[in-house]
Amino acid sequence: xxxACSRAMLVQMFRRQRTEHSVQVPAVxxxxxxxxxxxxxxxxxxxxxxxxxxxxVHAGDFYLTATDVPYEMRWQAxxxxxxxxxxxxxxxxxxxxxxxxxxGRPCRIRETEGERDEVISQLLELCRRELLGRHGTSACFxxxxxxxxxxxxxxxxxGLSKYHFSxxxxxxxxxxxxxxxxxxxxxxxxxxxxxxxxxxxxxxxxVGYSSPGHFSQIFRREVGLSPSHYRQ
Length: 232
Known about the structure:
By secondary structure, the protein is of the alpha+beta class. The chain contains nine helices and nine strands.
């Protein structure tokens, strides 16, 4: 699991606001697993034009979705504890392989809303400890996003040719290295748009786009909304 956390999937941890009235969740190309690390909350979801559906969630519960339809979420934390969540973007095969290694038998991954699984919790707890051990409390650390993508340098660091690195990377994540890098940039941009008041130009620069127009174009392509509309 240590290797998977550091190389084969994107993991981010967030301390959420206690009350959120509406968050736009874009369609995701790969499975998204959201694990409640700490706290309790009433979480509700709604596809545009449909009725809100809600559930009380607690630390240890998780959501697993791979929807190709954008939807909205809202929540209200309960009790004195902070509401902390982990987002894990991964290929289904990666999670299935990890479960096989942990419990010695395969499992079928299905879309899940606010359920609990002790094996998955144990695996994600290991991942959290590794991230906190490497990066302290700033667990959303994503290094090098402001630098141009350099496949040659990345492959050399891994001790592989560009061809073999790209092939192994895509087998593990389902994405090419360049597409994965763009996904990292857009996830970081989404976090900054949602959680800070920094300007869109400043956020674009942080994730490697010196042209605001280019940043907006890529963000709209990946997320389905312009940066300004996503922030709203």
